[in-house]
Every structure is written in C-alpha cells, then in structure tokens.
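[Meeting: bench + compute handoff]

Bench side (C.D.) handed over the final construct sequence. Compute side (W.E.) agreed to return the predicted structure before the next meeting so the bench team could plan truncations. Sequence as handed over:
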Amino acid sequence: MRHDPRPIGIFDSGVGGLTVLRALRARMPQESFVYLGDTARLPYGTKSPETIQAYARQAAAALMSRNVKAIVIACNTASAHGLAALQCLPVPVMGVVEPGAAAACEASRSGRIAVLCTEATARSLAYEAAIRSIRPGARVTTIACPLLVAMAEEGWTDGPVPEAVVRRYIGHILHKSDSPDCFVLGCTHFPLLRRAIAAVVGPAWPLIDSGDAVARCVEAQLIDTGSSAAGRQGTVTLMVTDGPDRFARLAGPILGARLRERDVEVVDIGEVVDAAVIPAA
C-alpha cells in the first residue's frame, strides 16, 4: 500500500479549530498536521462573505506552500463562505458544516435541531441547507452567539459568567413542548465552552461537535485515495499570524501539551498568496 507522509493542513481564525485538530490527532496519530490560526484577523464571524473568502484563500495558499496533502477548514464561518472558492485546489478540501449537519441529523429524534454559530454562519443559511438536504422535514433554529467566540479566545470557558451568557442566548428556546432535541456547536470555538453550554441545556440534549465527524471523513478519504501516512507518530506544526505567546498559552490545555511562544511560528499569509494557485472568486 502506498503511504503519503505529507501533512494535513488545517486553518481557523484562532484557537477554535484546535478542537478539530485534537479530534484528527486522536483518530489518526500517525498523521502529521500543519495548523494555521489567523489570529491577526479574528473573529471571522463578523466579517462580510467577500472578506471571509479572501481570508480563506490566503490561509489555504499558506498551507499549500507547506506541501500539504489535504486541507481541513476548521472554521464553520470559513466553511460556509469559503469552501467553494477552494475547490479548485489540487488537494482535497473539507469543511466542517456538512459533517456537523450529518451528525445532528443522526442524533435528533424529532428533527428539531438548534444551531449555535457566528453571525456570518447564521446569515449564510449553510446549516439549514445541509440539514434539510439530509432531513427535508427538519425544523432548524439558528442562533448567533458571537460573544462565545471572544470568551473562548480569552480562555474563559466555564463558570457562572459563561453560563449566564449562554443562557441569555438560548434560554428562550429551552423547556418548551417544541424545543430542539439537540444542539449543534456550529462554531469550532464552542466545544471549548461545552461545560457551560451543557450546564444550561441540561443532560437530555446532545451537543453535536463536528470535530469527530470531520475526523472520520478525513480518515475515510485518505484510505480511499491511498494517502494515509505510515504507522509512526506524526508531528504538529503550529502557525499564527499574530500573538504566538498568547496562542501558545491557550492552545496548550486544548492539545494537552506544554507550549511556549517558540513552539508557535508567526507567518505573514499575505506574502504567500498566489493568484495562479487560488484565483479570486
């Protein structure tokens, strides 16, 4: 069997995509990964579709310069607005919306599904479309929760204050006869606040994290194309566009490692954009 030692590229606006990286590493420890957090320009969720597409092209170009064999858009906002713009690449590109939607459809008994996401993801209607392509009769409630992204980036992920913020966003749809029976964490930052969200919604409602679903899809694709790495332990390269010290401090607990500023490389992704590789939409 042919093996491909090239790394898998992953990008997000900040630390949220590390939840996807964590799931990928757990499922495929033999693979190597290059992670890019566009920390200089986060959050993506408040930007226009055109700006998000431009950022996605620049991030993908930076990863392509590292000779990656696949790219995972570990950001729901960039998946919703930028995935189509990256389909021209010569490597597989996968977003997180469709795997998350599929997992929600499988978990929901009634078809009443709530999606917690950013403002830009909510405006895109991407989750509604993905869910209804699988369950046409689904009833989807989308709630933009932009403050949760900022709280995750601050590392303020549980306790009474995050719980109060979550309750302010979603309290009005809980404990009704027609309430959703599952919640999609439709931003990769939101699994970092899982305990706060679970404390508000209660144990009866499953919280759908797209990370595991994405990891299964990536693994299946690599097997199908004969592009899996050999059985050795893979490596992880971390890159950001700003603030490596802060990123290292936040990323360490997520990845279960002691990270220092020198473990995170700072890159200028504007310098690596090649319009011939990823043309503007």
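W.E. noted at the follow-up: The mean pLDDT is 93. C.D. will use this when planning the next construct.
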